[in-house]
Design a protein that fits this description.
43% of the residues lie in helices and 16% in strands. 37% of the residues are buried. Strands 1, 2, 3, 4, 5, 6, 7, 8 and 9 form a 9-stranded mixed sheet that branches. The protein is an alpha/beta fold. It folds into 2 domains: 223 residues, Spore Coat Polysaccharide Biosynthesis Protein SpsA, Chain A, CATH 3.90.550; 85 residues.
Length: 331
C-alpha cells in the first residue's frame, strides 16, 4: 500500500492527454505491487482536458503537478524527480500495464546489488508477445539510423564499423527504454537528471549513457511489463512508413542530438552527410525505376519527397546541434 511519507519507491508518470491510460496503469500497479511502499507522481504537460479529475477521481493519493506548458518527457520527469520522496525512482509510461509484482523484484535487485545502476523488465504487447524491435545497444540503434538497402552486405558492413558491446551477463544492456527505468536516487545524484534539451525521444538513450557509467544496466529476460505504445498524441506519431521513411521526424531530431552529445561532432556530421547524400540517390533510383517500368519519370515520388522534407527539418537544427547549444529541440 502507498503511504504518505518516506516511501521506498517514487513512480513518475508524465501525462499528455492520457488520463484513462494512467488509470488503467495504476490499477495494475495497485493490484500487483506488494512488499514495497510507493508513491505516484503525475506531471501534466498542459493537457488542457479533464486529466486531473479523471486520475484523481480514481486515485486521490496521486501527487499531481502541472508544468504549465508542453515540456516534453525529460523536463516533466525531472520535475517529478525533484518532488520524489522515495530512495528508488521509477520512470513509467502512461501506456504501460503490470502483470505481476515486478516493481518489488526490480527494487530488490537495486537494494541487493549495489553495482547495478538501473533495471527494467522486457516489454511485451497486450497479448504477451515480446517487442522484438526494441533496441538495447547504443550501436544497435546507431546502425538503424543509416538508410542503406537492407541487404546482408550492408548489414555486415555496418556491424563491422559499429559492433555491439558484449557482456557476460545476458541481462546486461547498454541502456533502457524510458517507458520503464528504475534506479536509485543516489545514482541520479551522481549521473544527473535527464537532459532538458530533449523534448521527446532520445533523452532515455542519452541518460542511459550516463547511468551506464554508474554501474550495470539490466534488462531482465524473464520479467515483463505491457507497453501498449499508443500513449502519445497523434502529432508525434509516425504518419507513413517505408524503409527510407522509418523515422518519426521528432524522434530523429532528438536522436541526432543524442549522437552529437555522446559521440561528438564527427559522428553527427557523418549522419547529416549521409542523409544529404541519400536525397539525390533515392530520387535518382526511383526515376530510373520509373523509366524502366514505362512510367513517367516523376511518378510515385511521395516517399522520396517525404524523406527530403525530413532532412530539411534536421537541417533547421543543424547549427544548434553541431555546437551542442543549450536549446529546447522541439519541432
Amino acid at each position: 500500500m502507498p503511504i504518505a511519507s518516506a516511501p521506498d519507491l517514487s513512480i513518475l508518470i508524465v501525462n499528455y492527454k492520457t488520463p484513462h491510460l494512467i488509470v488503467d496503469c495504476l490499477r495494475t500497479v495497485h493490484e500487483y505491487t506488494r512488499g514495497i511502499t510507493f508513491e505516484v507522481i503525475v506531471v501534466d504537460n498542459e493537457s488542457g482536458d479533464n486529466s486531473r479529475e479523471v486520475v484523481l477521481g480514481s486515485f486521490p493519493d496521486v501527487r499531481w503537478f502541472d508544468m504549465g506548458y508542453n515540456a516534453g518527457f525529460a523536463r516533466a520527469n525531472n520535475r517529478g524527480i525533484d518532488q520524489a520522496r522515495g530512495r528508488l525512482i521509477l520512470l513509467l509510461n502512461s501506456d504501460t500495464l503490470l502483470r505481476d509484482n515486478v516493481l518489488k523484484r526490480c527494487a530488490d535487485i537495486l537494494d541487493q546489488q549495489p553495482d547495478v545502476a538501473a533495471v527494467s523488465p522486457m516489454q511485451v504487447t497486450r497479448h504477451g508477445k515480446v517487442h522484438v524491435d526494441v533496441f538495447h545497444g547504443f550501436n544497435q540503434i546507431r546502425r538503424f539510423f543509416f538508410v542503406f538497402p537492407s541487404t546482408p552486405f550492408f548489414q555486415r558492413l555496418l556491424l563491422k564499423f559499429l559492433p555491439d558491446r558484449q557482456y557476460t551477463d545476458p541481462n546486461q544492456v547498454d541502456w533502457l527504454a524510458g517507458s520503464f527505468i528504475m534506479t536509485r536516487r543516489s545514482v541520479i545524484e551522481r549521473a544527473g537528471k535527464l537532459d532538458e534539451d530533449f523534448f521527446m525521444y532520445g533523452e532515455d538513450i542519452e541518460w542511459g549513457s550516463r547511468l551506464w557509467k554508474q554501474g550495470r544496466i539490466l534488462m531482465l529476460r524473464d520479467a515483463y511489463y505491457v507497453h501498449l505504445e499508443y500513449g502519445s498524441s497523434p502529432e508525434y506519431q509516425q504518419t507513413a512508413f517505408s524503409h527510407i521513411n522509418r523515422f518519426k521526424t521528432q524522434m530523429q531530431v532528438s536522436n541526432l542530438l543524442w549522437i552529437r552529445k555522446q559521440y561528438g561532432i564527427g559522428a553527427y556530421l557523418v549522419l547529416i552527410l549521409h542523409y544529404l547524400t541519400m536525397v539525390p540517390v533515392i530520387f535518382g533510383w526511383k526515376i530510373a525505376v520509373n523509366l524502366r517500368d514505362g512510367r513517367p519519370p516523376l511518378a510515385q515520388l511521395q516517399n522520396q519527397v517525404e524523406f527530403a522534407k525530413k532532412v530539411g527539418v534536421f537541417l533547421r537544427f543543424f547549427g544548434k546541434t553541431l555546437f551542442n547549444k543549450t536549446y529546447f529541440y522541439k519541432i
